[in-house]
């Protein structure tokens, strides 16, 4: 969810933290490297005593006995393997379409895939100047053990995001309404988390991190279908940004991607994806916001896209930024620009950031569009006197069901509320709730977005929401 300026699927595990920046797919050992350990091949069976001798030397009876023993051993292994495969095939769960199987059922161990790991590049540097020494690595392991709940909540949320977005990428096609797509995403997230959010307090345990964003074309961000609006049908020529969040105990996985149905937009998407990945690569402890923005801008603005016979240089949008995330707080104060600035604010160990970029064929400066995307508690307002009982009642409902999570009118309707507009407007007018409008570039332009949630660690960066798709 872009910050206005003034969440099995693909698995990843930690690479060697002291090496160069790279990712490693989960799987542990290369295919076939454990063939001698699990009974799936005959490697190592010919010399059971381990003396390296030739098993054919000896009397005939011993050779026959050995041969018979080997046959029995192979048969036992075959039976064991068949039994194992049978058990897996009858008890293994798979995700449905639409996604409705809770991820807790798909991962009964309660441990979820680690995100992509990017170690800091320390090649050729003195160890004393490196971020990762042996002692720091041991400290990292201790931190991981001590903070297992925090990490697992984030990794679970990321797995939910991956599974839901896979379904979206397969099913969101021209002809569908944006309301159908948004409700499909939200139903999937709630089902996979096991929190429908219909009882007070349940939505604080897990649910949507913010309303599903489905911004089309020149609308860059902050659009979701809401009551009273005309249904918008997705068209073949549309560029749709799909931006949704998943939260568990207030820790929000914020990740977004762009869908198109015409290859003419491919270079626009490639520019923004490259810019986002560049921002991730240069992120880390002590990385300065203005310098990250410079790297993002350089990557994005090296692209051009031709649409309807006209060539456009892809521009970085200047009035949005990435942002750090705190518990129940999607925009926590630090901003990652998409252009080079003089901002010397540094990333710090333990920070969670939404590294996102927006590119456009328009001007790169956004204006507020018509309507309202959503609402969120103003964290700077701790107390105010409200005259309207409807405002007081609505504020109680918001705190019980959303806390600091941004919500939209559809979510209030889903709770069964009605006649709440007067109270809602009162909360906005008193500054208790902040209102988020859609953000648009000039008419006729096209915008794209890609975004990942990352965790800054002492030995590297964990890209929590990374998947095989982006």
From TrEMBL:
PROSITE patterns: MAP_2
Catalytic activity as recorded in UniProt: Release of N-terminal amino acids, preferentially methionine, from peptides and arylamides
InterPro entries associated with the record: Creatinase/aminopeptidase-like, Met_Aminopeptidase_Type2, Pept_M24, Pept_M24_MAP, Pept_M24A_MAP2, Pept_M24A_MAP2_BS, WH-like_DNA-bd_sf, WH_DNA-bd_sf
Residues noted as binding substrate in the record, renumbered to the chain: 222, 331
Cofactor binding mode and count: Binds 2 divalent metal cations per subunit. Has a high-affinity and a low affinity metal-binding site. The true nature of the physiological cofactor is under debate. The enzyme is active with cobalt, zinc, manganese or divalent iron ions. Most likely, methionine aminopeptidases function as mononuclear Fe(2+)-metalloproteases under physiological conditions, and the catalytically relevant metal-binding site has been assigned to the histidine-containing high-affinity site.
Basic residues composition bias: residue spans: 71-87
Region (Disordered): 1-107
Biased composition (Polar residues): 88-98
HAMAP family: MetAP_2_euk
Function in brief: Cotranslationally removes the N-terminal methionine from nascent proteins. The N-terminal methionine is often cleaved when the second residue in the primary sequence is small and uncharged (Met-Ala-, Cys, Gly, Pro, Ser, Thr, or Val).
Protein name, per record: Methionine aminopeptidase 2
């Amino acid at each position: 969810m872009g910050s206005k300026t003034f969440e099995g699927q693909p698995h990843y595990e930690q690479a060697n933290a002291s090496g160069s920046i790279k990712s490693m797919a989960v799987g542990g050992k290369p295919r076939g490297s454990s063939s001698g350990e699990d009974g799936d091949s005959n490697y190592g069976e010919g010399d059971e005593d381990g003396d390296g001798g030739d098993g054919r030397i000896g009397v005939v009876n011993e050779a026959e006995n050995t041969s018979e023993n080997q046959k029995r051993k192979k048969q036992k292994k075959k039976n064991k393997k068949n039994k194992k495969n049978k058990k897996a095939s009858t008890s293994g769960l798979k995700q449905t379409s639409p996604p409705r199987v809770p991820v807790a059922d798909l991962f009964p161990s309660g441990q979820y895939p680690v995100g992509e790991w990017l170690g800091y590049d320390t090649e050729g540097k003195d160890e004393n100047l490196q971020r990762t020494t042996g002692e720091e690595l041991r400290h990292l392991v201790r931190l991981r053990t001590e903070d297992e709940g925090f990490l697992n909540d984030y990794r679970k949320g990321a797995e939910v995001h991956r599974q839901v977005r896979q379904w979206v990428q397969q099913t969101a096609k021209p002809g569908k309404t944006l309301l159908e797509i948004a409700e499909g995403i939200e139903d999937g997230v709630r089902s996979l988390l096991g929190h429908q959010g219909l009882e007070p307090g349940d939505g604080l345990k897990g649910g949507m991190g913010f309303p599903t964003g489905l911004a089309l074309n020149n609308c860059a961000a902050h659009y979701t279908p809401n009551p009273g609006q005309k249904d918008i049908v997705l068209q073949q020529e549309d560029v749709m940004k799909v931006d949704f969040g998943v939260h568990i105990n207030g820790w929000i996985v914020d990740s977004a991607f762009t869908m198109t149905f015409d290859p003419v937009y491919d270079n626009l998407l490639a520019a923004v994806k490259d810019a986002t990945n560049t921002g991730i690569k240069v992120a880390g402890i002590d990385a300065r916001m203005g310098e990250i923005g410079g790297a993002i801008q350089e990557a994005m603005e090296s692209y051009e896209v031709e649409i309807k016979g006209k060539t456009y240089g892809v521009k970085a949008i200047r009035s949005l930024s990435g942002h750090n995330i705190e518990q129940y707080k999607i925009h926590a104060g630090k901003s990652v620009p998409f252009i080079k600035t003089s901002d010397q604010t540094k990333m710090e160990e333990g920070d969670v950031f939404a590294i996102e970029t927006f590119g456009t064929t328009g001007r790169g400066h956004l204006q507020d569009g018509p309507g309202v995307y959503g609402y969120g508690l103003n964290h700077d307002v701790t107390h105010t006197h409200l005259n309207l009982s409807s405002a007081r009642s609505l504020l109680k409902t918001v705190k019980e069901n959303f806390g600091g999570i941004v919500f939209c009118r559809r979510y209030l309707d889903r709770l069964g509320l009605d006649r709440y507009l007067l109270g809602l407007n009162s909360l906005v007018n008193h500054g208790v709730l902040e209102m988020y409008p859609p953000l648009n570039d000039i008419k006729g332009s096209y915008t794209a977005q890609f975004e990942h949630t990352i965790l800054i660690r002492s030995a590297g960066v964990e890209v929590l929401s990374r998947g095989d798709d982006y």
